[in-house]
Specification:
heterodimer, A: mainly beta, Folate-binding fold, 10% helix, B: D-Amino Acid Oxidase, Chain A, domain 2, 2 domains, nine-stranded mixed β-sheet, binds flavin-adenine dinucleotide, binds zinc ion
Chain lengths: 94, 416
């Protein structure tokens, strides 16, 4: 069981949260090509290692926040609010 | 060596040393006509059909661990073709038909057991959706039968049939030709048959990079056992597809998740069909050893750790006990997970990649064991001819740009 730290409520069990996948994705404008739009909708880095993702404390305060987590060890490397700039974490590739 | 009753008798009389290994463990050659990455069911079947259907025998299958050690050896072994859309119906039905003759084809008992699969309806809406689903299957020429509550009760009497149940059972539908097959035997059978046709299976051989020509096309791989050149390369690496794509310089619409399963201690025969309750997420069958095999839904956060989270294990057990209360007396023996390659429409990708000479078979997600024969057949076809097989045409990477998705997940609400 993972222990995630909600920025508002503190450490809680994994089953209080829901993961909504990769964060920091910027939506392109409507003028882009189909290929560009397809990439935005569906294509993900899906890294084996550090992943920046968004979580929601669904069965708690209901707030969204960002997490940097290792997808192999499940170690949580950083938790930060949606509006905060992403902090550097060890082990992240280019 | 041909396996037969006579061979078994001869082996019994002359002792265990009279059996030869089912496949060789050769040293890598410097070059092959085709390299397949990943010795799961899909990679091994691809190598077999390259040799058997296309006469291409100068083939190597590269596996970073041991053959069949990925999802193929971890899955709950359900095979069926009860899909909704015509494209999927054709693909999965072709696969099920290949399974039906596979034991003879490979001279290896894959223990196919067509014990049927029952889907449970827990509400009026389930009943309506299932009649639509069963009718769609019949329109596609695939067997499906709607079942009344009493027919479900007769087929699986241990179900919680009480009208007071949290998930009351109102009926369901069945595909009688669905069932289970022995997962290891499918990998071993294809491996042995491919090896007999000259294919080299190279285990403990991890692909760590690709070599390229001036036009960006792949010309070979860098591996933990040295560089190997190849004319064409096929990737069949399931949960590790994105890792290999990144090494080759492109990305995929794939997310890797852990999918877990578990078995109870063995018990007397108590369930002779497969039961799936989409409403609760319970997915149960009994193995030939007597264990109750419990399938599960995904741990819904990206993961490359081959273990399922305990939070979900509890949920699966609760769902299973809601529909089979008497199983609460059974002890759990093992729980494990595999890393599956999930795409948005839950349909596979089989065809070329943006990189010349590099082809891929992935995106099977939670349900690609049943697709092994057709996945191998169609990846072999595009590797051999350069053109997509007719069955695989709708299942191209392109669909994520054109929007022509084959949204089986949303349509049918099924895992595995
Ligand atoms: C718990 C669970 C239950 C399931 N239940 C069902 C079910 O009931 N019915 C069904 O139809 N499907 C089911 N599935 C899905 C099914 O198991 C998979 O879709 C299918 O086995 C995929 O086969 P594959 O050959 O593509 O992948 P795998 O069997 O995973 O093989 C891929 C291989 O590639 C190797 N590899 C990865 N990276 C590299 C590299 N860099 N170099 C060399 N080799 C590499 C891996 O080691 C692995 O052996 C289930 C899956 C799981 C995990
Ligand atoms: Zn909170």
């Amino acid at each position: 069981m993972m222990l995630l730290s909600c920025p508002w409520c503190g450490p809680r069990d994994e089953n209080e949260f829901a993961c909504a996948g990769t964060t920091h994705i910027v939506r392109p404008g409507p003028e882009v090509s189909d290929a560009e739009w397809g990439r935005y909708l569906f294509f993900r880095a899906n890294p084996k290692g550090v992943h920046r993702e968004r979580w929601r404390h669904v069965y708690g305060c209901g707030q969204w926040f960002n997490v940097a987590r290792d997808t192999v060890t499940h170690q949580v490397l950083a938790v930060y609010r949606m509006t905060e700039p992403p902090p550097a974490v060890p082990g992240e590739g280019p | 060596m041909k396996y037969s009753a006579l061979a078994l008798l001869r082996g019994a009389l002359s002792g265990p040393d009279s059996w030869s290994p089912a496949w060789r463990s050769p040293e890598p050659k410097p070059e092959y006509e085709v390299i397949v990455i990943g010795a799961g069911g899909h990679g091994l079947a691809t190598a077999y059909y390259l040799a058997r259907n296309h006469g291409i025998r100068n083939v190597a299958v590269l596996e970073r661990g041991w053959l069949g050690g990925g999802n193929t050896g971890r899955n709950t072994t359900i095979v069926r073709s009860n899909y909704l859309f015509p494209e999927s119906a054709r693909l999965y039905e072709f696969s099920l038909r290949l399974y039906e003759s596979l034991t003879r084809e490979l001279n290896f008992n894959i223990m196919l057991s067509q014990r049927g699969l029952i889907l449970l309806a827990h509400s009026r809406h389930d009943l309506d959706a299932m009649s639509r689903w069963a009718n769609a299957m019949r329109m596609n020429g695939i067997d499906a039968e709607l079942l009344s509550r009493d027919e479900v009760a007769a087929a699986a009497p241990l179900l919680n049939l009480s009208p007071e149940a949290r998930f009351p059972i109102l009926g369901g539908f069945t595909q009688r030709r669905a069932g289970t097959a022995r997962h290891d035997a499918v990998a071993w059978g294809y491996a042995r048959a491919a090896d007999a046709l000259g294919v080299d299976i190279l285990q403990n051989c991890e692909v760590r990079g690709f070599t390229r020509d001036a036009h960006g096309g792949v010309t070979g791989v860098e591996t933990s056992r040295g560089p190997i050149r190849a004319g064409r390369i096929g990737i069949a690496a399931a949960g590790h597809s994105s890792v290999l794509a990144r090494l080759a310089g492109f990305s995929l619409p794939v997310t890797s998740y852990a999918l877990q399963a578990m078995v109870t201690e063995p018990t007397k025969p108590a369930l002779d069909t497969v039961v799936l309750s989409p409403g609760t997420g319970a997915y149960v069958s009994q193995s030939d050893k007597g264990e109750m095999v419990l399938g599960a839904s995904l741990d819904l956060f990206p993961s490359y750790a081959q273990r399922g989270s305990f939070a979900l294990t509890q949920g699966i057990l609760a769902s299973t006990l809601a529909i089979f209360p008497s199983f609460s007396r059974l002890r759990l023996m093992r729980q494990w997970a595999g890393i599956v390659d999930v795409v948005h429409d839950s349909s596979p990708i089989i065809g070329p990649t943006p990189v010349p000479n590099l082809f891929i078979n992935c995106g099977w997600g939670t349900g690609g064991f049943k697709g092994i024969p057709v996945g191998g057949w169609t990846l072999a076809h595009v590797l051999a001819t350069g053109r997509s097989h007719e069955l695989a045409e709708p299942f191209q990477l392109e669909r994520f740009y054109t929007g022509r998705l084959i949204d089986e997940a949303a349509a049918a609400g099924i895992a595995h």
